[in-house]
Design brief:
It contains five helices and 19 strands. With 498 residues, the chain is largely without helices or strands. Among the domains are: 141 residues, Alpha-Beta Horseshoe (Leucine-rich repeat, LRR (right-handed beta-alpha superhelix)); 108 residues, Leucine-rich repeat, LRR (right-handed beta-alpha superhelix). The N and C termini lie far apart (96 Å).
Length: 498
């Protein structure tokens, strides 16, 4: 013993000390103070990367050209987006068997730089993001555990049965902005993946709607392809589909039939704009709320084609070829709940007769309407927005009772016509009145009487002079904010393209 036998009191003192004896040359603060626990050793983190948690490695935007080689095996979330990576080394990926999220968005990874077995060991991977890379073919195998797969904005020309097939938890697949043709999309591409709700195939080279799509689909994006045909039965199993986007394709009447949409018992939004249709498609489902048919070649709307779509709320027919007989009386009678009718840029020469009584917004700019009779708008007393801008209306052909029934009207756009004086009988609840680009040469108080809620009155680009504005013209316009606003607000609609 190092303690002398003659000093038992020293031995007692040593036994009562709270910690070990200090070692020569070691600083006092190298040991924890009384009541403190020792800190764990610092975690390894790749240079310049951030590791905010033990399971997260963030290497975003570091201009990396080589995959980091010292990523912790405990990583569950790895982000390498916005770098210069050209390949994924299998030996490094295979170490990270616990990964749940792998973000490789916006790199330079090619199919040659992505080994076939790259993701074989990632058996817990749920989210993979490889958008904006240089892939020419999809990975042949992705893990069964996958929930979200984003391969958008590559150069993918081919996918394989096990790229997205046999993935029972897969919910979202993004393949837009690639070079996929129907030949590159095998019939069993989604077999065994019965939970896919969102599938984006827009901006590819598909010439017909792919068969054997997942029956679980809720949103299907096929816009900006070369689709001229929907094969019979291609949409017969998609009873949960709510949104279908087919705009900017090459669809003709012969490419659709009466059964194309009839089985879509949950469909709410159908976009067929920017195609080559000459008639409204048949077999529209009762659940449909929004039908976008703008920028086609439709000459006439038949009531029989709309009979099934009784729940329709928005009907958009802008930039078609509807002439004087394009909307005959009763054509829209089945649509009792119609809220908005959009007819911008057709050849209509009058307000369509027998409009649905519950209509709230009638959008008719850039047509050939030359007159408004006393009863032309009487069938729609609930209108809140009426747009007749850029037609051929002249004051002599606007009846003084044309607006009498429109007590709910809040926005009236008569810009770009041939009016020489203010219309009479304007609804007293108006908030916005657009009259710019007409031939107005004088203003009198009488047409503006009672418009005490009018907030915006646009009179720009007319023939008005100060001396032609009668005394008291502005007297009752107590709410007016800007009497000469050059442009007024547009009618609020969903985000539709014109």
């Amino acid at each position: 013993s190092l303690i002398p036998r003659c000093c038992p009191s020293l031995l007692l003192l040593l036994l009562l000390l709270p910690g070990p004896l200090p070692v020569a040359g070691m600083e006092d603060d190298a040991f924890p103070h009384l009541g403190e626990s020792s800190q764990p050793p610092p975690r390894a983190c790749p240079p310049r990367c951030s590791c905010p948690r033990v399971d997260t490695v963030d290497c975003d935007g570091l201009d990396l050209r080589v995959f980091p080689d010292n990523i912790t095996r405990a990583a569950q979330h790895l982000s390498l987006q916005n770098n210069q990576l050209q390949e994924l080394p299998y030996n490094e990926l295979s170490r990270l068997s616990g990964l749940r999220t792998l973000n490789l968005h916006n790199n330079l990874i090619s199919s040659e730089g992505l080994p076939d077995e790259a993701f074989e060991s990632l058996t817990q991977l749920q989210h993979i993001y490889v958008a904006h890379n240089k892939l020419s073919v999809a990975p042949q195998f992705l893990p069964r555990s996958l929930r979200v797969a984003d391969l958008a904005a590559n150069q993918v020309m081919e996918i394989f049965p096990l790229t997205f097939g046999e993935k029972p938890a897969l919910r979202s697949v993004y393949l837009h902005n690639n070079q996929l043709s129907n030949a590159g999309l095998p019939p069993d591409a989604f077999r065994g993946s019965e939970a896919i709700a969102t599938l984006s195939l827009s901006n590819n080279r598909l010439s017909y709607l792919p068969p054997s799509l997942p029956p679980s689909l809720e949103r299907l994006h096929l816009q900006n392809n070369l689709i001229s045909k929907v094969p019979r039965g291609a949409l017969s199993r998609q009873t949960q589909l709510r949104e279908l986007y087919l705009q900017h394709n090459q669809l003709t009447d012969s490419g659709l039939d009466a059964t194309t949409f009839s089985k879509l018992h949950s469909l709410e939004y159908l976009d067929l704009s920017h195609n080559q249709l000459t008639t409204v498609p048949a077999g529209l489902p009762r659940t449909l709320a929004i039908l976008h048919l703008g920028r086609n070649r439709i000459r006439q709307v038949e009531a029989a084609r709309l009979h099934g779509a009784r729940g329709l709320r928005y009907l958009l027919l802008q930039h078609n070829q509807l002439g004087s007989s394009g909307l005959p009386a009763g054509a829209l009678r089945p649509l009792r709940g119609l809220h908005t009718l959009h007819l911008y840029g057709n050849g209509l020469d009058c307000v369509p007769p027998a409009l649905p009584r519950r209509l709230r917004a009638l959008v008719l700019p850039h047509n050939h309407v030359a007159a408004l009779g006393a009863r032309d708008l009487a069938a729609t007393p609930g209108l809140t927005e009426l747009n007749l801008a850029y037609n051929r209306l002249a004051s002599a052909r606007v009846h003084h009772r044309a607006f009498r029934r429109l007590r709910a009207l809040r926005s009236l756009d008569l810009a770009g016509n041939q009016l020489t004086r203010l219309p009479m009988g304007l609804p007293t609840g108006l908030r916005t009145l657009q009259l710019q680009r007409n031939q107005l040469w004088m203003l009198e108080p009488e047409p503006l009487a009672g418009l005490d809620q009018l907030r915006e009155l646009s009179l720009a680009h007319n023939r008005l002079r100060v001396g032609n504005i009668g005394p008291g013209t502005w007297h009752e316009l107590q709410a007016l904010q800007s009497p000469h606003c050059p442009q007024g607000p547009s009618i609020p609609l969903p985000a539709f393209s014109w």
